Each structure stands twice: as C-alpha cells, then as structure tokens.
Amino acid sequence: MNKRLLLCCITAFLLICSLEAEPLYSPTWGFRLDLPEEYEFTGGDGKNQFTFQSSFGAFLDIVVYPNKESAALLAEELEKKLSNRGAKNKITYNGAEAVIMELNFPSPQNRNARFTGWALFLELETPSGGTAPSNRTGTPAKGKNFLTALAYGPDKAELRGLHLSVLDSIEGGERDRRLPGIMTEYFHPRGNWVEQNLAAAGKARFRENDAAAAQSVVDREFQVLSLYLSSGKWQEAWKRFYRAIFKDSFDRLGNAAFILERSWNNSVLGPSGKGIKSEEAERLGTRAAEDAFIAAKALEWVQGFKYERDLEGSDFVNLVSAAQESRGDCDSRALLWAIILLQADIPAGIMVSREFSHSMGIANLEGAGARFPMKDSDGKDIRWLVAETTAPVALGRIGETVSEITKWLGILFE
Q1: What confidence tier does 305 reach under pLDDT thresholds 50, 70, 90?
Q2: pLDDT in tens, 245-268
Q3: Residues 391, 380: contact at Cβ < 8 Å?
C-alpha cells in the first residue's frame, strides 16, 4: 500500500497536499513531517502510533505520549528498552523541550547485527483550538505532550543522511513552520546575529552560521535525492529536495528580503510610495502593481548573479551564500526569487525541467507573458506568470526552446 492510499484510509492522519506537495499532518496532535518517497505504513493505530518502512530498508517509528513529565525521562526509558549505546543530549528547539539520541542497538531479528540511526523526543505544541488531555478526574492534565521519532536501519552509509532528513522534516506545531529543522539546528547551531554583505544591496542581518548550515542541508538532501534518480518516484523526490531547502532557508533570508524590498521601494517613489508608476496602479490596481514591481526588481537582482555550477556535486548554491555573494545556477536563483516574493506575501514557486536542465520562477501576478498552469495550495486553477532568472528579460519572457509546458514540473511551498 503506498503512502497516498494509506493516508486516505487513516482519517486521523491527513495528507495536506495539492499535486505539488505531500507533507503529512496530524490534526490530533498538530505535528507535520515530510517523508521521502517509498516510505510505506506498516503498523500503528494511525493516531498515536505510526511505523513506516522505506524501500531502502530504513525504518521510522513515531509514538505520541500525552501528559508526560519530560523528554529526558522518555529518552532514558527508551535507552534501557533498546539497550542503546548512543549518546543523548537535551536541547531547546524554538522554545520547546527536546532530546536527540544517537541510536546503536541490537537488531530484534538478529542479535549479532546492530541498527543505527537517530531518535528525537520533541515537546509538541497544542494544536490551534485544541486542549491538553484531561486526567481521570476530568481536570486538565499538567504534563506535556511529546512526540518520539526513531529513524534507524542497518548500518549503511546511504541510510545515514536519510535518517537525518526524515527527522529534520518534523515540525512540532505552527511554531516550527518555515524554520530550519531540529537536526540541522542540533548539528549546526545558527549562532549570533551579524551584519553581512548582501549582493548589490549593502548589508543585512544573518546568523553567523547560516551559510554553513544551509550548505549542509543542500549536501544532505542531494545525497537523499540521489537515491531516487533511477526510481519511478524521481519527480516526487525532486520536489521534496526543494521543499527541504525552502524550509531551511526561508527564515535565514528574512532580514535580507526585508532589506531588498525596502531598497527597491525607495529607489523610485510613485504615488503609492511603493515605486510604481501611476498608469501601472490604474491598470492593475495598487496592490497588484506593487506586487508586480517587487517581483520585477527581485528578478533583475537575481539575473545579475554570476552563473555558477558544480557538475560534481549538487549543482545548487545554498541560498544564503547566493544572496551574499551574488552567484548561483538557475535553480538557486529561482528558489531565492520565490522566497523573496513569499516573504512579501506574493504567491510564488518554481518550475523545473529535467529535459531542459533548467529552472524558473513562477508567481501569481497580473500582467502579460508566458504562464504555467497549475493548481495552488487550495486546489484553485492558476496560470502562473513565469520568471526566467538567468537572462536579462522581463517577467513572462522565456526562450522558445524551453517553452514546452509538458516538460516542466511545478513546485509550490506550504
């Protein structure tokens, strides 16, 4: 049974996706995760317990424990139960209590073999509109709700990045949306705020380790993507690759996007104070004209980057380095452009093509030009305006050699 069919059957665990995204969501507990492809549900009640197994032999066990005292006690209990040898560390993640434990324990099927991986114990945020479980007297429970997630398998090099990628995708509630994942934060803490160069726009505030952390995610997710290159699920795996980078990079680029938008708005002040011409505001409406202006300026900005490729690696410059150093390939530029628009509340995404070895941006904007038809996250049919990021052309202009719609894959981001 594949992941989509299974989750249609388990009503307590919803698939919150359109055609372009497949993260999983628990309405009972409010957590989300974005599993790699070919993970199949193999056990659990579909509410508090879930077991998945991948086609590569990796396992994921998830259990939710309501009304517990601490993550540390849960970790100690599991450590004894598994006879685990790995180290464990208590951390705080976005204000939540958590423990991360390295797994190294005997295989239940073969005591001479060992499983390795990682375990996560994470305090859950109470779902919006939800309440903490009550005890038997009917009074509110005083403990916290914790998610435990074990990503493990045979000790194989190709599974190590997969385990980390799975756990890094977990969000304990809305507090974790569009933020770097917990495993990345654990191995690559963001550090203090520092002012650093922002390409052609002065300086912006980043965390001191943002570029290195973002690059680690690119490298890890490329290793995961490589597992699927000959799979029938390569398109879904490709989408997840970009979703993982988007989630990691969005907040890292928050101040940079603000600085850029402010500089563009101050460059040419129109009647709205937003740098647009009066005839544009009259033709499109003020908000639509403002959005088109920001999109056009962001496009000019990334079009000015130095074209750079890494034919031996992921061929993707992490977005922090791209923004700071004005460099990157088409997919780095397209995703960076989309994030800048989304930071300005402009619906945007990217489109990628294996046949054309190319990527472009897409946005829900008014104006003339080439458009890519795709549903939005609410299932509404949209004709997205296309943005070519590697040539000095206006929004909606693309080359005839890459204009065949059927050879493109559209990707939006929650």
Answers
A1: very high
A2: 999 999 999 999 999 999 998 765
A3: no
**With contact defined as beta carbons under 8 Å apart, do 171 and 31 qualify?**
yes
CATH 3.40.1000.10 boundaries in the chain: 1-127+153-176
CATH 3.10.450.50, domain 1-127+153-176, yes or no: no
- 3-class secondary structure per residue, 108-119: CCCCCCEEEEEE
Q: Over 80: is that where the pLDDT of 139 sits?
A: no
The C-alpha atoms of residue 389 and residue 303 are separated, in whole angstroms, by 5
Q: Pinpoint the alpha helices (H) of 29-96.
A: 71-82
What are the tokens at 228?
């699927």
Structural tokens at position 323: 């923004």
Q: Can you tell me which residue has the tokens 């992941």?
A: 3
* Alpha carbon distances (Å) from 6 to 2, 21, 73: 6, 16, 32
Residues 6+ apart with CB under 8 A from 360: 330, 334, 350, 351, 386, 387, 388, 389, 398
DSSP state letter for 287: H
Query: Which pLDDT does position 408 carry in this prediction?
Result: 96
3-class SS at 56?
A: coil
The predicted structure's pLDDT at residue 252: 98
Q: How many residues does the chain have?
A: 414
What are the percentages of helix, strand and coil residues in the chain, rounded to 5? Answer: 35, 25, 40
